[in-house]
Design brief:
71 residues; mainly alpha; 3 helices; 2 strands
Amino acid sequence: MWQGVKPRPREKCRESGKNGTCVTRQRIAFAPPDAAAAAERYFSAVAEANGWTFHWEFGAAEDDEPGTYRN
């Protein structure tokens, strides 16, 4: 396989079984679903305690692309 002008080796690790032998201590960690709401509650409490005023609202979004880690 070529990437630009460089040849890049390619191996199908799924077929060779190499994926099954790979072990790592790293883990993907996601925030809990209510983390954005908790941050907003905390920020609002601090703002109110300090007399801050804002003319905007907090918002949150959740985007998920199917197969994100395979694309």
